[in-house]
# Entry
Amino acid sequence: MRPPRLASVIERRLLVNYRVDPEAVVPLLPAPLRPQLVRGHAVAGICLLRLGSVRPAWAPAVLGLRSENAAHRVAVEWDGPDGVETGVYIPRRDTGSLVNRWAGGRVFPGEHGHADFEVRETADTLRVAYATRDGSTGVDVTVEVTERLEGSELFAGLDEASAFFRTGSKGWSATRSGCSLDGMELHTDAWRVEPGRVTAARSSYFDDPARFPAGSATLDSVLVMRDVPVRWRALPDLPVGPPAARTLGRAA
# Structure
């Protein structure tokens, strides 16, 4: 069965970005993916996403569902039929929605773990924390919305950061089989992001020294998206091999 095209509203999305030693990222990526480099760094992070009005694209918004979701991501590139393509590799997705957990990998791409979320929001401050039911993953991030993107070593400013993430609209998710990746592509005519500043951050994924040795993953920046209507299109499964050979991507 062909997965349906979905529509939704990104009610809130935090893109919490880390600059990472590329050598630490390469072993995490299945072939044919390789890290996309920005100023000599790999780019990884956490997407903390609340979706509203999720429904088949043909259905009215009033019938849509709402859910809190999270994804750990690495910016990647690969060789497509028309040249080098860019997107993100998602080793883990988590959700607070039982519907998403059941449907992910069945009705639409992206298998999800089960997590409990705690969210506090004002116009200027956002805190999102979650812990997975299997005990493997925990995140707690607090962000202040600011007027400018400052302190980033990856991006010179908001426009550069926005363009980088907008062009990386294809997401490849790990699957239990390990033989292929689920793919989903985001489309919107209303793309907009706001700069932010992280005031506190904890991630069991990026703080794990077995995965990222000391100094190899450094918090860099955060972007905020709010109230953006989007559409989602399933991509054909991407066959994968063993972790990529130790080659690095092009510098962006």
